[in-house]
Amino acid sequence: MFTLIEKTKSEQPQSLLAGDLGGTKTLLAIFNWGEEPKKLHQSHYHSKEWSSLEEIINHFLANLPGGIEHPSHGCIGVAGPVSNGHTKITNLDWNINQNDICSSAKLKKLEIINDFSVLIYGLPFLNKSQFVNLQVNKSKRDINGFNAIIGAGTGLGIARGLITNNGIHVLPSEGGHREFSPRSEKEWELAQWLKTHLGLNRLSIERVVSGRGLGYIAKWRTSQLDAINHPLRKIAQDWTPKNSANIDLPAIASKAASGGDRLMNEVLELWLSAYGSAAGDLALHELSLGGLWIGGGTAPKHLEGLQSNTFQNALKEKGRFKPLLEKIPVMALIDSEVGLFS
Q: Using one digit for the tens of pLDDT, what is the confidence trace for 300-316?
């Protein structure tokens, strides 16, 4: 939303449509812009229950409460690469055209932007209730400089940006689809199983470090001989991303791990370690001395895991560059609606 406001200051939009489209859920809200944005109305949609973003937006606008005016401008963060107002949502198989939606929704202006890119715009405006410090630099933190964000949700989102006193420059990324590189024998075994199970020649890191990835790890681990009698074996074998609305295996596995289940704790530890390593790689790649942010739908659900030695050590153990990574501020975004805020 801040990117839209920055680019339309001269037009002074009064009523704004803000949206956050992910593979699992879509959030839409109406904001009024005065001295600061004020949320007037919000709705939550299960993305897979709808055939298109256009259909969701039209339903939302047609059912606004009385007294809320139709928005004049809009900004929607979407889970996929955006080019000239066009995108195909990676985990929904939706094709989105910015101009078509703008016309259908009767808006003066609409901007479609990658959902993680839009978060960069909101970072300087976050309040302390929206994030938790995972690693604090001993010196005074200055958000100015290069920042990077990584977040496991349905998929794995990544973005980076340069924040200065003169503005914010955002660089989208599809780094979540880079090659997964196993660091241990267990990760190697998992990678080989995933390639076979999914019929892939190439394995992206998103297949492991995501909500779905946690489900795949549980499915792989319970398929092994020592898990024949495990109480979650049948549930895990029946689970697929397509039926996740009925069988939320990642949540089931996480709950079992917190309850002391040894096998599911092993699953969660493997996932957290792979996640931490991916976050550390991103911090190095972008030299994000302004801050490394952990976002996505799993961040507030797995805050304790993000604070654990498993995640933290995997993030920092980068050989000769460990001292550099120890200086980078690391924060977890715990506001589940931060995509609307940004």
A: 999 999 999 999 999 99
pLDDT per residue over 248-264, tens digit each? Answer: 999 999 999 999 999 99
Rg, the chain, Cα only: 20
**Higher pLDDT among residues 292 and 338, named by residue:** 292
Q: Is the pLDDT of residue 2 over 70?
A: no
pTM (two decimals):
0.88
The answer to whether 220 and 266 are in contact (CB under 8 A) is: no
Instruction: Give pLDDT, residue 29.
Output: 94
CA–CA distance, 80 with 319 (Å, rounded to integer): 33
Reported residue count of the chain is 342
Position of tokens 């739908």? Answer: 297
State how far the Cα of 275 lies from the Cα of 157, in Å rounded to an integer: 12
**pLDDT in the model for residue 258:** 95
CA dihedral 200, 205, 210, 213 (to 10 degrees): 40
CA-CA distance, 11 to 227, in Å (whole number)?
62
* CA atoms of 203 and 153, how far apart (whole Å): 18
